[in-house]
Design goal:
TAT_signal; about 775 residues; 3 domains; Purple Acid Phosphatase, chain A, domain 2; alpha/beta; transmembrane; 5'-nucleotidase,  domain 2; six-stranded mixed β-sheet; 5_nucleotidase/apyrase; membrane
Amino acid sequence: MNTSDNTPTPRGRRRVAAGAALAAGVLVALSVPSTATAAEGDTTIDIVDINDFHGRIESEGTAADKAAGAAKLASVVQSYREANPNTIFASVGDNVGASTFTSLIQNDSPTIDALNAMDLDVSAIGNHELDKGQDDLTGRIEDRAEWPYISANIVEEGTTDPAFTPYEVIERGGVRVGFIGATTEDLIPGLVSPGGVEGLAMAPIVSQVNRYADQLTDGDAANGEADVLVLLVHEGATTANIADATGTGAFGKITSGVSSRVAAIVSAHTHATYDHEIAGPDGTLRPVIQTGSYGVNYGHLKLTVGADKTLTSIESEVKSVNAETTVPADLTSTNAVADIVSSAKAVADVEGAKKLGEITGDFRRAVQSDGTTENRGGESNLGNSIAEVQRAATERNGSQVAFMNPGGLRTDMLYASSGAGDPDGTVTYKEAALVQPFANTLVTEDMTGAQIKAALEQQWQPDGLERPFLKLGVSNGFAYTYDPSKGRGERITSMSLDGETIAPTDTLKVTVNSFLSTGGDNFAAFATGSNVADSGQVDLQAQVDYFAAQTTPVAPPTDQRAVGVTVTPTPEGGFRPGDEITVDLSSLIFSSDDPEEAGTVSISAGDTELATADIDPTVVDKTDEQGRATLSFAVPGAATDANPLTALGRAFGTTVLAAAVTPTATADEPLVVTLPNGQTVTLAVSIPIAAAVDPADPTDPSEPTTPGAGDGGDGTGAVGVDTDGDGVVDGAAPVDAAGALAYTGGDLAVPAIAAGVLLLAGLVALVLVRRKRAQRDETVPTD
């Protein structure tokens, strides 16, 4: 590549010889050649691209579910080269990082080697290339890679000078194709550790790309190096909807703002799949594509360039690697890659047998009623444990709570040994990798209490799905209650973190994996957070680091992070002595627990135990309702409705006590459920319980109040004192010695009940008004 004197010479710049030796025999893949016929003198150039490969060198599953793999991808690339020697193989970044175990365990060396064997020509810098910092990119990665990494908008802090190679020009058939690289502007400070990119900053993609587009194609300037320009930008639309690739969003500004000198935009980062035509600033349509991720699909640009080096046409497509069936005539590249993958798998098998950590018991997924089939609708100690691991891994990013999708847990982590040389309680690398084989990265985001509640409500899936409920694992300290009798969107009744109630307007830093962060498994609420940042940490690596940090074996969690609660509706004015209350509970145990050890559950108010019940451990398939119990009891204290005035008071939402009726000092106490493991659940419901007597106070508040005693007998008009000598104790209804309602003068021709009504209506000051209890905020399970 030729550069002018005013082109910066960034650190970490690398160059490789363009092109590769091709076999003399050419076998044309059926899907490769274009039906368009080039005019005499025209040159056709094929650009094959991938994005977000993330070390997926092994084929996974079937062709219907990922499959592909580096060897299959190598065959596709080689087929294009055999069909057209003027072929360029490009990547749009994130070749490494977030890799599966086979590549991760060797620090992604197998992935770099495989791409070298495929003769990758050029790659944009993705955010994962900087997971371990800039020195790691310019050292470990670039030292091993035989292709140049490019980015025009990662700059030296305080300047617009690129810190890395901004572009690469590759010549094929006498045509110079200029590739300009760019990296998501969210890279710093959101997507990588700040310490690893110290001294770097992000410049706007559009202005930096346009700067080099002008430089590379302006014949009046000193350069004029490229005949055709292609942008490799590690940024993209979030979905295949063209509206997400246009408009005023970050990617829409790129597609509309990047100079029309750029003939095509090849994107990445969002793992979306699309093939659009979008107008540039001058109105000319150009391809805008992305291939998804993991090398399962590939992109293809077919450029036709005239004899005058002017682009005459460009075609684009995104195709499945799995769908390609033609075998190249020259299998040198394919075989070399297959050997690299095979060797990497052998190393992974050895490394996978190494000890990662120790556990004290089984970490299991939930099960159905048959005791063996996985139940993604049940809370599990494995799901909660993994959520805590991921919260701990992103604690430096400010994470307060983490959620884990049950489908991301593919097997149990068992205490019993899994093979020779693996003693009980030992967890190997391979065992941990099998639990989480997807190599998702951990994403942090700010979510309000209302958004978190919405996510929890989405555990109840849309109607008609095979799995009607998906239980999220949650990290330590977070808990919630739900009412299974309620309807969609109304079931979550409370949430708390470390015992403190979470209000709808509170904001928490939440961690989820990259699958959930985009709304996977119908958890759309996780795609609504703000300040979204990919930590760059792979879920498996988080598990590795977690075990490494422990000084003792890790114990499975025993507390329930969610409990179902349905309570008798609170009457107007609150519960009173004698009222019957029923509390239905569910999700009190893990379905994987021994049902013989389900135990009992109790409910209390203050120091008063109100009821106990055995827990029914029967599993309800596809839900989290196992561990059920019903607790029924009467509110302590004598019912007072025999007193007609008291009955009237209840009708009016008040409590009326005659002076001769012994008043008992009470306090509203919340109902507290205690599980067999000592964990408690404080409900929103409160009931009156006799207040404890202060031994330092000589007056027992439960003793009858006598006239004249009052407030120390000082005649100040306190409750229980007849201060004006009218025979009526002030602050109470008039009484006679027997405690009956006293008449106020001549005989009344109406029943006594009417007198009570008049008293209530006209002598408000002569009754004790029991306040209407405000329902307390409900809290959640605590240890």
